[in-house]
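Example S7 (structure tokens).
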């Protein structure tokens, strides 16, 4: 296999560790803190997790290692969507495990949680691990979205662990995956299996964070990758001076990715889903907001611009959410077959018109035909509209075009409007991790093994003080139950890790809010360029604008 010179150089990069993890395994001790409780619904969470609830937060520090000496056989799982740095979590875990005892073993369960259930694995060695150091992707063992949530699955997992003498499982995933890690940890404790479970916080969406988890891994690299591309488009827009670029970015429910990219590139427009929901903005109001920027810029002879659209924004528009709910109801059960049997779009449109309320039909009617049809095409396993597949970047540019035409007819707008569309998602999920993510992920994995060695179960590997240089980072662990609350899922109350949405009173949004008026009217573009891996620390090791603002 041919490899690039950058890839070869990254294999040889030595990730930086927090100061207290640099002393050598024999000189890492534990400082226990206060007992914890869940962020909400304390009694219910305590009842569901009697063996793992209320445990103490811990911090590692320099001191005599008092953990019992025993052979450790650890299993690791990559769960959910890819995020840059996942390979380094495994490398850090492997290195700490082997540094403690060369007889220790690391099993990699293939293709996500299903690998544990199917007993499909490989055993890592130095040669295999070395091929993946500091690289992007999850191809080291593959990932998957199987949920570990049933008693039957837990019993099989326990048997697989017993078969191989596995003493601990590390689950690398987002909020749902770490919720499942907590449930699995509780099962293992309740059934006295002797198997520990440790989680690691992963998601490019940035919504797995709280007062303890400052950011999830992958967010840094993904947003820098998207920001490079957005900056390139901004420069092209400023050169050609004839296109408005509508750019949708990944992020699903939360707008952290969109906001970070806006802070890095200073586009003319960036929608923030959480603000749309708080202000109960309609599609028409959003289109007017964007059209205002187009009109003001056109009046200055600037018929170009850039708008960033979060992936899930339409779900936060109240009237659109109502429309989606009515469509889901309209096509429930056998009605879906009846609808699918209709041959022409005109006849389908008439069927839709009869089934929707007047208010929802008014919303549906203003949508471009292509978007209307998307709402009735692909559906999820529950028969619901897959909102993430809606091309919202095209939706908003079409609505803006309609608004501008109305203004032209009214004589208030005389500019030109030509829209181009982009979706940045998969481009950022497997990029070469930045130095920050390489260091952070390696530290998370190394730290996860220290939690295992000291006997902790149901904990999340925690690295904090992340806005400072790596030698000032603080390593430790927190019970996953501390992050949990009860939410209604599929008609049932479920314990889940609380998602972190963009806080409208938080420093990142407040900074954006204070500057967006100027960005909307003038050309204030910033061109961040490619991620830098070698050179001055202030260039190569820089954190995201979001983290810097939150921690200042």
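Recovered sequence:
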């Amino acid at each position: 296999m041919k490899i690039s010179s950058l890839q070869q150089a990254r294999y040889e990069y030595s990730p930086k560790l927090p100061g207290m993890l640099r002393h050598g395994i024999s000189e890492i001790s534990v400082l226990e803190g206060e007992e914890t409780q869940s962020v909400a619904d304390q009694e219910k969470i305590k009842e569901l997790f009697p063996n793992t609830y209320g445990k103490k937060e811990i911090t590692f520090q320099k001191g005599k290692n008092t953990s019992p000496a025993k052979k450790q056989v650890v299993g690791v799982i990559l769960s959910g969507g890819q995020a840059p740095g996942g390979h380094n979590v495994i490398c850090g875990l492997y290195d700490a495990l082997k540094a403690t005892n060369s007889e220790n073993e690391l099993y990699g369960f293939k293709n996500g949680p299903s690998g544990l259930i199917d007993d499909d694995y490989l055993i890592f060695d130095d040669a295999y691990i070395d091929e993946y150091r500091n690289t992007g992707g999850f191809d080291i063992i593959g990932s998957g979205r199987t949920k570990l949530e049933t008693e039957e699955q837990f019993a099989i997992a326990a048997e697989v662990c017993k078969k191989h003498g596995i003493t601990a499982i590390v689950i690398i995933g987002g909020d749902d995956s770490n919720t499942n890690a907590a449930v699995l940890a509780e099962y293992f404790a309740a059934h006295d299996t002797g198997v520990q479970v440790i989680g690691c916080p992963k998601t490019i969406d940035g919504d797995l964070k709280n007062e303890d988890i400052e950011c999830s891994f992958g967010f840094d690299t993904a947003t820098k990758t998207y920001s490079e591309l957005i900056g390139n488009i901004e420069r092209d827009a400023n050169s050609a001076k004839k296109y408005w670029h509508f750019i949708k970015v990944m992020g699903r429910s939360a707008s952290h990715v969109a906001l970070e990219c806006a802070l890095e590139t200073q586009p003319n427009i960036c929608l923030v889903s959480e603000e749309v929901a708080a202000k109960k903005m309609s599609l028409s109001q959003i289109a007017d907001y964007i059209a205002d920027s187009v009109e003001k810029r056109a009046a200055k002879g600037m018929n170009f611009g850039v708008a960033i659209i979060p992936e899930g924004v339409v779900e936060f528009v109240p009237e659109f959410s109502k429309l989606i709910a009515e469509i889901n109801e309209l096509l429930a059960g056998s009605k879906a077959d009846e609808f699918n049997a209709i041959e022409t779009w005109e006849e389908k449109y008439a069927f839709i018109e009869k089934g929707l309320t007047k208010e929802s039909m008014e919303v549906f009617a203003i949508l471009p035909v292509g978007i209307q049809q998307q709402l009735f095409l692909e559906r999820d396993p529950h028969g619901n509209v897959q909102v993430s597949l809606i091309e919202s970047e095209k939706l908003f540019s079409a609505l803006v075009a309609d608004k501008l035409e109305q203004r032209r007819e009214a004589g208030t707008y005389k500019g030109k409007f030509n829209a181009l569309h982009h979706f940045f998602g998969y481009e950022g999920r497997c990029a070469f991790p930045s130095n920050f993510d390489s260091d952070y992920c390696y530290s998370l994995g190394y730290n996860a093994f220290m939690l295992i060695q000291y006997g902790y179960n149901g904990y999340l590997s925690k690295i904090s003080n992340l806005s400072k240089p790596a030698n000032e980072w603080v390593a430790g662990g927190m019970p996953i139950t501390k992050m949990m609350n009860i939410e209604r899922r599929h008609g049932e109350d479920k314990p889940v890790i609380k998602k972190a949405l963009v806080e409208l009173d938080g420093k990142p949004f407040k900074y954006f809010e204070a500057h967006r008026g100027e960005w909307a009217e003038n050309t204030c573009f910033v061109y961040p360029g490619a991620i830098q891996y070698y050179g001055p620390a202030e260039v190569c090791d820089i954190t995201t604008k979001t983290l810097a603002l939150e921690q200042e």
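Notes on this example. Residues 219-240 form the longest helix (22 residues).
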